[in-house]
Design a protein that fits this description.
The chain has 214 residues and is of the alpha/beta class. The chain contains nine helices and eight strands. 37% of the residues lie in helices and 19% in strands. It starts with a helix and ends in a 6-residue tail after the last helix. Bound molecules: pyridoxal-5'-phosphate.
């Protein structure tokens, strides 16, 4: 089932005309370590997690595997030491304080931590992320932090007009030619995201099935 779903997702990715390479992140929040293993055995390499404690348990159990771990959930500042130590990518940086802590806490032996700034692309009150007019200042500030590497942006648009949101995100991206990563697209709208330049798509439901509430 998970294996078939991965095949289907990969062919959905290939069905969209795109110039950039697109990497599939299997969002494994709420999923068991056994489900992650099934995906891993089917060749999946990138996994995304939202909840730190749950993620750390899986990372520990799977430490002998070649997995690229992405942290995609909201970040409270007391969580940054463990995020800096255990993940390869962080998609949800939305204030300078968090970036500074990750930079300070990233162990040098692990190399730079890949960071994306989360953008509240539809200016929603309830959603985390930077407002569009805050992006430029924080991008400049991140230049001075040498243990993290700003790679691009992540957004979670309003579901009702996500194609339009992805277009706006892509346009912002063109202002930053040194950045190479756009994390956007979930199960319901990944094709729209890829058509607008997504390089990382984050898929949970269409790989592992419907989640229980969390
Ligand atoms: C849960 C989650 C996803 C995956 O969503 P699906 O609709 O299950 O594909 C992607 N991104 C983030 C930030 C998430 O929290």
């Amino acid at each position: 089932m998970i294996k078939d779903n991965l095949l289907k997702i990969n062919s959905r990715i290939n069905s969209v005309d795109h110039k950039h390479q697109v990497t599939l992140i299997a969002v494994s929040k709420t999923r068991s370590v056994d489900e992650v293993r099934v995906a891993l055995d089917a060749g999946q390499i990138h996994f995304g997690e939202n909840y730190l404690q749950e993620a750390l348990e899986k990372i520990e159990l799977l430490q002998d595997k070649d997995i690229v771990w992405h942290f995609i959930g909201p970040i409270q500042s007391n969580k940054t030491p463990k995020i800096a130590k255990n993940f390869d990518w962080v998609h949800s940086v939305d204030r300078i304080k968090i970036a500074e802590r990750l930079n300070q806490q990233r162990p040098k032996v692990l190399g730079k931590l890949n960071v994306l700034l989360q953008v509240n692309i539809d200016n929603e009150d309830t959603k985390s992320g930077l407002f569009v007019d805050e992006i430029e200042e924080i991008v400049n500030q991140l230049d001075n932090l040498t243990n993290i590497c700003l790679r691009g942006f992540m957004c979670i648009p309003r579901p009702d007009n996500s194609a339009d949101s992805y277009k706006r995100m892509a346009k912002i991206m063109t202002k930053y030619p040194t950045l190479d990563t756009l994390s956007m697209g979930m199960s319901a709208d990944m094709e729209e995201a890829i058509a607008n330049g997504a390089t990382l798509v984050r898929i949970g439901t269409d790989i592992f099935g419907k989640r229980m509430q969390k």
